[in-house]
């Protein structure tokens, strides 16, 4: 899959293309449905399936104070898209200049001239171009002029009857409901980052933890204790994860993410690891000393093993 981040360097063999466009934050179940349909429809017509996405949420440029935090980093999004059998992903630098393109300029310059679009596939609520003026009606009205076919996909629901959406995933992460997040995403939500040095207290209390660097990738869910899977390269371990500021102790920064890898004693400093979150166990508690914290950690490990099916 080509990854194109500079619009002046689009290889000529990307055309003729079948394109879908969107923020695709989180690449949830609904997004994957759109991308898999794109793949099938492109193949049926002998076109190259291409995803056009953005290097940041459009709101980060248009109204930064309202911009939601990303569910996945661009690197995580590309890793997920690489598995979808696409010919290319275009990561458009969403600059103020790009945001000013009218719907017509967007379609004509980017989709028609640069990417040779012959098929456009979007969800019913897709909007684009200056002020979000472009929509499905605009695309339908200009299909003959620009020589593309338009397919508007049906909605893909999440669990229950709510439509899968990035907004819903963010709401669920905020309250720590990673179990439902897994259903909306169609996979576990993953935090990825480098292991850095913590306060070195964990080893003393018998539960050494791997602390993720504060610049980690993946939206950090609400504070609490979680069961998950810890990936270090190809090795996978069960883990109990703590997210918060460890209120039992003073001076711990907000939103520290640390993982106790169950039953292992590993040297992980400097490694880039991934933590897949399976279920929230409980809230963070301010304990009266190390004794009660340790007793609770022992119970957390047992609960985690039960959830992961390894007890
Ligand atoms: C499964 C798990 C649950 C935890 N729960 C709490 C908690 O409820 N309250 C708290 O203050 N710290 C909690 N912690 C964090 C510990 O206080 C922390 O791991 C310890 O202070 C070591 O920190 P260090 O890695 O910076 O040395 C938890 C840690 C783990 C691994
Ligand atoms: N649940 C869904 N079913 C079908 N199509 C969807 C679904 N969710 C998004 N799409 C389509 O996928 C493309 C990319 O969506 P995009 O990421 O821009 O928005 P979104 O997932 O609706 O996110 P948000 O919640 O932030 O509005 C668009 O064409 C959109 O209409």
From TrEMBL:
<dbReference type="GO" id="GO:0003919">
    <property type="term" value="F:FMN adenylyltransferase activity"/>
</dbReference>
<keyword id="KW-0548">Nucleotidyltransferase</keyword>
<comment type="pathway">
    <text>Cofactor biosynthesis; FAD biosynthesis; FAD from FMN: step 1/1.</text>
</comment>
<comment type="similarity">
    <text>Belongs to the ribF family.</text>
</comment>
<dbReference type="GO" id="GO:0009398">
    <property type="term" value="P:FMN biosynthetic process"/>
</dbReference>
<dbReference type="Pfam" id="PF01687">
    <property type="entry name" value="Flavokinase"/>
</dbReference>
<dbReference type="InterPro" id="IPR015865">
    <property type="entry name" value="Riboflavin_kinase_bac/euk"/>
</dbReference>
<dbReference type="GO" id="GO:0005524">
    <property type="term" value="F:ATP binding"/>
</dbReference>
<keyword id="KW-0808">Transferase</keyword>
<keyword id="KW-0511">Multifunctional enzyme</keyword>
<dbReference type="GO" id="GO:0008531">
    <property type="term" value="F:riboflavin kinase activity"/>
</dbReference>
<dbReference type="GO" id="GO:0006747">
    <property type="term" value="P:FAD biosynthetic process"/>
</dbReference>
<keyword id="KW-0067">ATP-binding</keyword>
<keyword id="KW-0547">Nucleotide-binding</keyword>
<keyword id="KW-0274">FAD</keyword>
<keyword id="KW-0285">Flavoprotein</keyword>
<dbReference type="Pfam" id="PF06574">
    <property type="entry name" value="FAD_syn"/>
</dbReference>
<dbReference type="InterPro" id="IPR023465">
    <property type="entry name" value="Riboflavin_kinase_dom_sf"/>
</dbReference>
<dbReference type="InterPro" id="IPR015864">
    <property type="entry name" value="FAD_synthase"/>
</dbReference>
<dbReference type="InterPro" id="IPR023468">
    <property type="entry name" value="Riboflavin_kinase"/>
</dbReference>
<comment type="pathway">
    <text>Cofactor biosynthesis; FMN biosynthesis; FMN from riboflavin (ATP route): step 1/1.</text>
</comment>
<keyword id="KW-0288">FMN</keyword>
<dbReference type="InterPro" id="IPR002606">
    <property type="entry name" value="Riboflavin_kinase_bac"/>
</dbReference>
<dbReference type="GO" id="GO:0009231">
    <property type="term" value="P:riboflavin biosynthetic process"/>
</dbReference>
<feature type="domain" description="Riboflavin kinase">
    <location>
        <begin position="184"/>
        <end position="309"/>
    </location>
</feature>
<keyword id="KW-0418">Kinase</keyword>
<protein>
    <recommendedName>
        <fullName>Riboflavin biosynthesis protein</fullName>
        <ecNumber>2.7.1.26</ecNumber>
        <ecNumber>2.7.7.2</ecNumber>
    </recommendedName>
</protein>
<dbReference type="InterPro" id="IPR014729">
    <property type="entry name" value="Rossmann-like_a/b/a_fold"/>
</dbReference>
């Amino acid at each position: 899959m080509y990854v194109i981040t500079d619009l002046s360097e689009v290889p000529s063999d990307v055309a003729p293309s079948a394109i879908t466009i969107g923020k695709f934050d989180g690449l949830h179940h609904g997004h994957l449905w759109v991308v898999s349909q794109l793949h099938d429809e492109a193949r049926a017509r002998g076109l190259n399936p291409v995803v056009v996405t953005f290097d940041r949420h459009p709101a980060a440029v248009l109204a930064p104070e309202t911009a939601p935090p990303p569910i996945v980093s661009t690197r995580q999004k590309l890793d997920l898209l690489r598995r979808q059998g696409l010919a290319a992903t275009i990561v458009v630098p969403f600059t103020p200049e790009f945001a000013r393109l009218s719907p017509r300029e967007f379609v004509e310059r980017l989709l028609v001239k640069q990417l040779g679009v012959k098929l456009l596939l979007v969800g019913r609520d897709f909007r684009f171009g200056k002020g979000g003026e472009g929509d499905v009606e605009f695309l339908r009205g200009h299909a003959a002029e620009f020589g593309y076919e338009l397919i508007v996909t049906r909605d893909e629901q999440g669990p229950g009857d709510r439509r899968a959406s990035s907004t819903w995933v963010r709401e669920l992460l905020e309250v720590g409901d990673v179990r439902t997040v897994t259903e909306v995403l169609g996979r576990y939500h993953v935090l990825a980052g480098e292991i850095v040095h913590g306060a070195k207290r964990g080893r003393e209390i018998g539960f050494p933890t791997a602390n993720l660097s504060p610049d980690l990738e993946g939206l950090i869910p609400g504070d609490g204790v979680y069961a998950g899977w810890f990936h270090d390269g190809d090795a996978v371990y069960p883990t109990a994860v703590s997210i918060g500021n460890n209120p039992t102790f003073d001076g711990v920064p907000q939103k520290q993410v640390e993982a106790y890898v169950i039953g292992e004693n590993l040297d992980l400093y400097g490694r880039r690891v991934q933590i897949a979150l399976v279920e929230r166990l409980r809230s963070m508690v301010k304990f009266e000393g190390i004794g009660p914290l340790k007793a609770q950690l022992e119970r957390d490990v047992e609960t985690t093993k039960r959830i992961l099916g390894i007890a």
